[in-house]
Amino acid sequence: MQIAINGRTGDSGILKYFKQVTSLLKKHGIHILVSKDFGNYLKDISENALEGIKVYDGRDDLRNAKFMISMGGDGTLLETVTHIGSLMTPILGINTGRLGFLASTPKENIENAIDMLLNSQYSIENRSLLHLESESEIFGNQRFALNEIAITKKDTSSMIVVHTYIDGEYLNSYWSDGLIVATPTGSTGYSLSCGGPVVMPESKNFIITPISPHNLNVRPLVVSDNSVISFEIEGRAKNFLVSLDSRSFTVDDSIEMAVRRESFHCNLIKLEGINFLNTLRQKLNWGLDLRN
């Protein structure tokens, strides 16, 4: 069996957790692959970190991997999704970062998590992805996002206008700092910080959330994920920023874009005893009474 690992670079503290994970996998005869960038970082801080471990450098190297382990925070897991793409290899997120909505396995629980993984004590959650359509070459063949697609202003303090259509029907012209289209998974990310609703992961929806809208009566909108959402952008500046999760490109006002559900999805591993409602209460402190 092959298991691949991608991890957060720039945090030397991750080395001990990486060694713990790989030691447990090696005891079970698992063949381990590590992403090129993460592997190079580990070798910089420890010469023998990759002893007996191969490095993968592209999606083709991952075709035989049964699982992918993401070590870091939610940002690392979002990066890991781009490594897998249409392979849809199930991902176990080990949280060595901060919040950890997606990377929901605590680093203190690594031994138990690996044991549950290898003993099939888990379920798979299918998380929908967004796909960006455009005649522009932005994002190459990585035109998908697990959390959100965001259109934001870039070079000026002035607002931009995002003319928005659903299945070709005019919805609204958002005078704002930008616009987010989020998946249910992304409802607890950027969209939430802009006033968007929390949506259950299995919901078949997109959330359209304006960023600091000029008209205060404009509110987030939940639509079917069978919808195609298209945009035209204008503003005093001619350059704008388009982001897919943590990846971004600068575009000009001639660009036309549309968003739909991606043809493939992301598979997240949910270990027994971990569920979304518990995560909500823990991460957002719902029901916490600071008076007591």
Automatic annotation (TrEMBL):
Gene3D superfamilies reported in the protein's UniProt record: Probable inorganic polyphosphate/atp-NAD kinase, domain 1 (3.40.50.10330), Probable inorganic polyphosphate/atp-NAD kinase, domain 2 (2.60.200.30)
GO-annotated cellular components: cytoplasm
Name of this chain's protein: NAD kinase
Chief location category: cytoplasm
Matches recorded under Pfam families: NAD_kinase, NAD_kinase_C
Primary role: Involved in the regulation of the intracellular balance of NAD and NADP, and is a key enzyme in the biosynthesis of NADP. Catalyzes specifically the phosphorylation on 2'-hydroxyl of the adenosine moiety of NAD to yield NADP.
Highest rank taxon of the organism: Bacteria
InterPro entries referenced in this protein's UniProt entry, alphabetically: ATP-NAD_kinase_N (IPR017438), ATP-NAD_kinase_PpnK-typ_C (IPR017437), NAD/diacylglycerol_kinase_sf (IPR016064), NADK (IPR002504)
Cofactor(s) recorded in Swiss-Prot or TrEMBL: a divalent metal cation
Compartment(s): Cytoplasm
The species this protein was found in: Mangrovivirga cuniculi
Keyword Transferase attached: yes
